[in-house]
Amino acid sequence: MKLLVTVFLVLSFCELRQAEDGKSSSSSSPLQDSPPVSEGAFSASSPQLSAEETYSAHMPEHLLCDACRAISFQMQQYLEKAESKWSLAKKPGALLSESEYVDALENSCSQSWENYGVKEVNGVKRFAGPGLKSQESMSVMMTGGPWPARLYMMCHSYLGESGEEQIYEEHRRRPGGLEEFLCYGAKKACTRFTHTKDRIKVKSLQSEL
């Protein structure tokens, strides 16, 4: 009889220890049952470039307006820097000499353009960089690649089409007005881009009718 009571007590004690060990192990690792941390809340990826955007020697049409605005901003910055550099040696409001404004504009086009790139905003590729309105987006800006060479060529094409003298005259006539002079107006980059978007909208509406 005593032997049976002893065996019963031993088995009961073992079961009690196993139950306590199970509780302690579950309480000591609370992360086991917690849900995984969500990824992608602030994830971002580089824009996927088309064949034209990757290999063309020229600026794609849908990026011409942004590129023009970036170029006009840099021209303005370089001219203002040249004017401030000589302001102490000349009378207030004095004009730069021809060689001075030509050098300033040439330097603005010949820079590295490393601060500019392309990113995708709401499914649309846009240029980003100094002088361009920042887009609230977590997208990654893609710099380097073909963009510096395209900006270089496009900038020098403006010097060839309009001439340094006329660009500087516009700068002096309307401070901050180079963007409007270079990018807007008949057959200018931003006007062409707007008309292209309008044509796409019209074609889309016609296809729906």
Report what the structure shows.
With 209 residues, the protein is mostly helical. The protein has a domain at 63-114 and 144-195. 57% of the residues lie in helices and 6% in strands. The protein is built from eight helices and three strands; from the N terminus they run H-H-H-H-E-E-E-H-H-H-H. It has helices spanning 2-28, 51-55, 64-86, 98-110, 147-162, 164-173, 178-183, 189-208, and strands at 117-121, 124-128, 142-143. It has a three-stranded antiparallel sheet. A hairpin with a 2-residue loop joins strand 1 and strand 2. Helix 3 (64-86) crosses helix 4 (98-110) and helix 3 (64-86) runs antiparallel to helix 8 (189-208). The longest helix is centred in the first third of the chain and has 27 residues, at 2-28. Residues 1-14, 19-44 and 195-209 have low confidence and may be disordered. Residues 21-43 are annotated as: Disordered. Residues 1-19 form the signal peptide. This is Marginal zone B- and B1-cell-specific protein.
Order of helices and strands: HHHHEEEHHHH
Q: List segments where confidence is low: pLDDT < 50 over at least 5 consecutive residues.
A: 1-14, 19-44, 195-209
Structural class: mainly alpha
- Report the end-to-end length measured between terminal Cα atoms: 97 Å
The amount of helix comes to 55-70%
Output mean pLDDT: 74
The total count of strands amounts to 3
Instruction: Please indicate the percent range of residues in DSSP E strands (runs of 2 or more).
Output: 5-15%
Radius of gyration: 33 Å
Gross morphology: elongated
Largest sheet: 3 strands, antiparallel
Lateral strand order in the biggest sheet: 2-1-3
Q: Give me the number of helical elements.
A: 8
